[in-house]
Amino acid sequence: MPRFEYAPAPESRAVVDIASSYGLFIDGEFVESASGGSLKTINPATEESLADVAVADESDVDRAVRAARRAQEKVWGPMPGAERAKYLFRIARLLAERSREFAVLEVLDNGKPIREARDVDVPTAAAHFFYYAGWADKLDHAGFGPSPRPHGVAGQVIPWNFPLLMLAWKIAPALATGNTVVLKPAETTPLTALLFADLLRQAELPPGVVNIVTGAGATGAAVVAHPGVDKVAFTGSTAVGKRIAKEIAGTRKHATLELGGKAANIVFDDAPIDQAIEGIVNGIFFNQGQVCCAGSRLLVQESVAEEVVDRLKARLGTLRVGDPMDKNTDVGAINSAAQLARITDLTKAGEEEGAVRWTADCALPEQGFWFAPTVFTDVSAAHRIAREEIFGPVLSVLTFRTPAEAVAKANNTPYGLSAGIWTEKGSRILAMADKLRAGVVWANTFNRFDPTSPFGGYKESGYGREGGRHGLASYLIEGSTR
Amino acid sequence: MTSTVTTPSSESAHGPHPADRTGDQVAADAAAVIGTADLSEAGLRRFLQGLPGVDRVGADGRAAQLGTRSIKTSAKAWALDLTISMIDLTTLEGADTDGKVRSLVAKARTPEPGDATCPRPAAVCVYGDMVTVAREAVGTSGIHVAAVATAFPSGRAGRDVRLADTRDAVAAGADEIDMVIDRGAFLSGRYRKVYDDIVAVREVCHEAERPAHLKVILETGELATYDNVRRASWLAMLAGADFIKTSTGKVSPAATLPVTVVMLEAVRDFLATTGVQVGVKPAGGIRTAKDAIKYLVAVNEVAGEAWLDPDYFRFGASSLLNDVLLQRQKLATGAYSGPDYVTID
Predict the structure, then answer these.
(1) Are A4 and B55 in contact (CB < 8 Å)?
(2) What is the 3-state secondary structure (H, E, C) of A64-112?
């Protein structure tokens, strides 16, 4: 029997220079941290150390917030929207021009496959800047009253699963609306944010408009707590989101929180079955399942459950797991040892609670953090793997009998970020979408992101929306008609 | 350049194949699949319309994703040789002459003069009246002679005429028959008529001493929807097709990657249901080695390795071979040559 062995097709890492150490980006300059503290960021696929990155303490954060305040009051706030738009368009163009550099760096720092960084992360990040650039001079006509005003300084904390894309989601609308920014990237994936700082200098963005402070949880807490921050935007875990909500309760700070999820991907018996299989794969194995809106709970109608699971397993056999820099890799490395441990723990709990585990047969590299695509069947709503966010390539399969049962099971979660419906029946799509308590409901597709479409959660998945016209609202104080 | 692909020989090409089933076995398999013994019009309709739908956006997306696989060096060399061995080298012009057909066969026999490692195409594909010439020209080379029949390309003729057309081609020595389905009947829902047509042509193919393989052309460009492509694929397989083929090459769009993906899904599912492995032949519009490799990736990842074989996958093409040869030379020499370094037929 002939075998089609795809030869390795590694992307070159020569397109990007990684410095041995990085400072903080404050007021348009890279500066040392006051404490001199630093952390190492590593390549999750090889455990190779990539760079030392400065850790910002409270005094560094204070410097950044002051710079942002100055820039907001003196330069960025008074600037006409049409002028701000030019900077945003320039940033978008530069991101597109330097896309390979960003894609390669993202892969090295995050562990995601180059195919996804190249085809999804970087182009979508550029698209967000293009999209919000278009809004910058139209805010008076966006339905937020006449002359809506920016909050001032936005403190933004982003996660490690889509480092550059989340940065774009946060920075583009903030700048379009006249806010300035202090952004803290995740401690395991700071490098594309620092390369972005370099791009901002290339774009000649006025100093202080965007400041990037690196560090771990304490740095993020300092950003959130700083009295000079007017608006907090956070994407990350629900636990941290709750702490932030408590921290800022009673202050004048506004906040948007985009937190965890445990999305239901609902497959009816009349679904376009081959595309549903692709959608399930894309829903949970995209970015190794490290997606807050991942379709981690597959709800499949009992009459087709066996067939769907069989086809899914066959399809998973063709997923290519391994070197993220190989252009043919479908599933890359888990972002960190800590995350791998969490995934391992939860899957163990799944087995102990009686679910049936199936793992794709694939050889995993020796070095780095790896987890093979895994499917649990015979999962009940009472199992931890059906309730807790795993944030890894682990799918729980549950079944349902009627549309009402599907809705009840899908909504039976503390989360409500996203959901998917697979059926050929248009009326059923509309009826289901109406009843599902989730911020995004995809029909016959999954994990699609578009700057024009608002994104955000119900319940413990957070509040506020990012993307689209709704995303502007989070960064504006409505204009009064008086 | 090393090659693991062997030129199809007359021995290996007639290995275990759906063509070995008798007409009764085909009918029994079909009855088992649709769950009614009489294969009535209503039964066929219920079955075909009960097949899972195809979401066009999703199918296009999957095909596009398969097209992004990066195939380099050794894998590319292997894929190029496999591609050549899967080509049905085709001339289907009104102006075809004996000389043109002989020249085509000569090209098939010696695709790369001076390089004995270069595999040969699987077959030459000609109009029915050219079969005698082609048969004589291929001699004992092992290259098959495929003939388009059944009032190709429109198929708009009475059944007797279409069967006579087929009979002529088989009698003249064609060992593969490419028939077109009655798209009018299919689109108006007369599935039983299409089924009966295919069964009748298959019977004619089996009257020969050595049964001719039957490739059923769906003309997917005229079927318009992917749902129809899936239904027509199943209908053709139920009626006993050895291969399902996208197009005549005379209608635009001809073969596309998404349509081929849908057909590959159908043959994969048909094997799982019946144990019968049917081949797939995209035809028309595949002109470059790069495109051909995308199709092979789709074959590998959608249907599976078992289809990476000239017995189960073919390219219907006229200009593809030369582009593959140019790519092959490039791998061997490290430099691109040019159109004057491959022969025209």
Answers:
(1) no
(2) HHHHHHHHHHHHHCCCCHHHHHHHHHHHHHHHHHCHHHHHHHHHHHHCC
What pLDDT is recorded for position A41? 98
* Structure letter (DSSP) for residue A117: I
Non-local (6+) Cβ contacts of B174 within 8 A are B128, B131, B135, B145, B146, B147, B149, B212
Tell me how crowded residue A365 is: count the other CB atoms within 10 A of its CB: 13
CB-side neighbour CA atoms (13 Å) of B262: 31
Taking the CA of residue B33 and the nearest CA in chain A, the distance in Å comes to 16
Instruction: Determine whether the interchain pair B57/A444 forms a contact, defined as Cβ–Cβ distance below 8 Å.
Output: yes
Whether ipTM > 0.85 holds is yes
B153 close to B248: Cβ distance less than 8 angstroms? yes
Backbone angles phi, psi at B63, to 5 degrees: -65, -40
A362 an active-site residue? no
Per annotation, catalytic residue among A11, A106, A292, A293: A292
**What's the pTM value of the predicted model, to 2 decimals?**
0.94
**What's residue B12's pLDDT?**
39
B78 vs A4: CB contact, 8 Å cut-off? Answer: yes
B contacts of A270 (beta carbons < 8 Å): 52-53
Q: What percent of chain B has pLDDT over 70?
A: 95
Cβ atoms of A171 and A158 within 8 Å: the answer is no
Q: What CA–CA distance (Å, rounded) separates A56 from A211?
A: 12
Q: Over the stretch A48-101, which tens digit does the pLDDT of each residue have? A: 999 999 999 999 999 999 999 999 999 999 999 999 999 999 999 999 999 999
CA pair distance A414, A291, nearest whole angstrom: 17
Tell me the residue length of chain B. 345
Across-strand partners of B261?
none
CB atoms within 10 A of CB B35: 9
Size of interface A-B (CB pairs under 8 A): 77
CA-CA-CA-CA torsion sign (A328, A334, A336, A340) = negative
